[in-house]
Amino acid sequence: MTTQSLPRLRPKSFTARMRRSLLNLVFVQKDSEGYRTFHGVYLPSILTILGVILYLRLGQILGEMGIVSTLSIIFIATTITLITALSISATATNMRVGSGGAYYMISRSFGIGIGSAVGIPLYCAQAIGTAFYVMGFSESVHYLFPSIALNTIEFSTLAVVGIVTFISTNLVMRMQFMIFVLVILSLISFLCGVTLDDISTTTTTFKSSMGYWTAFAIFFPAVTGVEAGVSMSGELKNPQRSLPLGAISAVITGLLIYLGATYLLWTRVPRQTLIEDTMIMQHVAMFGPLILLGIWGATSSSALGSMLAGPRTLQAIANDGILPRFIGKSFGKSGEPRIASVITLGIAAVCVYLGDLDFIAPILTTFFLISYGMLNLAAGLESLMNNPSWRPTISVPAALSFLGAGMCIFTMLMIDPGASFTAAFVAIIIYAFMSRRLTTSWDDIRQGVWMYFSRNAIYHLAETTFSARSWRPNVLAFTPHLIPPPILLDFTAGVTGKKGFLSIAHIFPIEGEKLNVEKMKSRIKEHLVKKEVEALVELVPAQDVTTGFQNMISAYGLGPVRPNTIIFGIGEKGLDSDVMARAATSAHEANKNLVFLKEGKQDKEDVEDKPIQIDVWWDEKLRESNDLMVLFAHMYSNKNSDTPIRITLKTVVDNEAAREQRMNYLCELTAKNRLKISSRVYVSNENQHKCIPNFSSDADMVCVGIRAPTAFSDLEEYVTYLSELTKQLKNLATTALFLTSERIEVDQIVGRWETK
């Protein structure tokens, strides 16, 4: 093939493509799919990084702190930002990142409550950041034109920034590349600059007037530029690719430039001059005006970047319903958040009026550290839990993300503990308010977090040797009706509250029309919430009641948190003795305690502030049931209630000598176990069960132990025993019949614990 056979249009076509690429680079235009990595993430980030701190405060920090401390500040701050950028990368490559940047990631990871608690301070930081960069720009202009009042320059600059961002995001993006070129030229001018005379002060002893963490707080906004790029997430063509690539590249570029600038300033400028001259970079540069242009370009671009980021964060917050939705209204073809921009401009104007650079920098640092900490924590928890949905293209070890979160918290506390606790308090208040006011159907990691820690806790409990001191009442309560009777709910919640697990179960027949189980569950849960009772809810379809509770007694639960006590709520009509006998047999065979709780007659007049009286009938033949009754009555009496509860141990003996002996025993039992329980011993020749209606007629609740089914020859005999007992007690108030299958000793559970 000869050269004449080659297509003559290829070189021309190649040149056209190169020209088009160059024009797209300089005059960026957002296409229908969004911005690319360089213009959408890298440029906003790097121009914010190379801003006020580099040109106006790096020399002062270096002069005050020295080369070693300054380098450590740069490395620590950059490490925090780099880890955060990696965490952002992991999150961004695992989910579709919408408008709002860091706020979007945090809210979709932790839920709307935490999202709002962090998102609102983050927006405030971005709004304050606009003022920060405007003041930096104005300070450099005021240096050149000292006759013009500083406030005049600041408000004029802020007005221009507001007008430009209000008109169009594309206009800002087009300006950024030209500003970037100016910044590069200014840095080249600084690199090729001169050395000032007399730098001997760099080797002499120097006492700094600025604390290390104060210097860190002033410097840290230099590395927060990554937020500017992340906040453009909703307008990127490919956020999953652009966010990690642009953010990490910007952070590394910024680190190299700051290290180089620090070294050059230290080797070229006397230390005292660094402190006194905030415009030192201009004085050592090869061509000073380029430094001024770089300062103006970088600071104005940073202000523009903050004015782009802040309104978009506010828009996302408003669109989620956290703030009035009209704030998030979009305008024009590109969806400009103009109402949010006006609000941001107003906040920035107030900050410009009230503050200065060194005052605002620590505030910015605190807000950004909160945001960075939450981003790292979200990525760390996702990696730790290893959910099937967590499959980021860029994988970051959980330990690294947790290290970043820990560094954020530590740094905040070192800079200003008071401000840190105040910021945390404000975030908690916002979280508490928004969690109550707003509900969403978002999938977040909270359930996964609870599942992760529950899983580890259950496995650990399963391997732990049982300790009587750690015994807890894990109760499975059967309700005869869909809505639990008041006494059943009150007693079970009082016994298990803050101590054990409570499960409310209802058995319904399989026959009949199909029931909506979820609606039934929701109805019970709504009732529990109304009564402020924490409980799990289980609905069990079965052929009959006996089959249903037998299945649940044998199968319900998980490892070490299986129920150890079954409580049956008995309605006004009572429970068939045959059903009671079968329930007792099933519970006893499963080695579970059993309580039949029946609400009886309430003939007594209600007297305000009258104590609730609980009678516990002690039966010498049922020692385990005695201890369980005492234990449950004691736990129930400790519930949060305005009405005091009095417990009395009662028993019957057949002679006076036995009465004195039994009384001494019961008093010693309650005294050594520090139980506020009184005792009464009656002398009677009748069976104790026959005496109970007479001696407990004024009690609000009567606790009685029952014999185990194994004490009878067959089920029919046991049914007869239960039938007679319930008839004897039918005229009492609330009755609780206890059958204990566990080996429970009240001395070991509530007694004084001593080491040998």
Q: Which regions are unreliable across 5 or more consecutive residues at pLDDT < 50? A: 1-12, 25-29, 200-205, 752-756
The largest sheet has its strands arranged as 3-2-1-4-5-10-9-6-7-8
Q: Cα-atom Rg, whole angstroms?
A: 37 Å
Q: Provide the β-strand percentage band.
A: 5-15%
The tally of structural domains comes to 2
CATH homologous superfamily of the largest domain - what is it?
A: Amino acid/polyamine transporter I
Instruction: Kindly report the CATH topology of the largest domain.
Output: Amino acid/polyamine transporter I
- Structural category is alpha/beta
Largest sheet: 10 strands, mixed
The top-level CATH class of the largest domain is: Mainly Alpha
First and last CA, distance = 101 Å
In CATH, the architecture of the largest domain is: Up-down Bundle
* Count of distinct strands: 10
Mean pLDDT: 81
Helix tally equals 27
In short:
By secondary structure, the chain is α/β, with parallel strands linked by helices. 60% of the residues lie in helices and 8% in strands. The chain has two domains: 36-202 and 223-318 and 325-437, Amino acid/polyamine transporter I (Up-down Bundle); 468-600 and 609-749, Rossmann fold (3-Layer(aba) Sandwich), CATH 3.40.50.
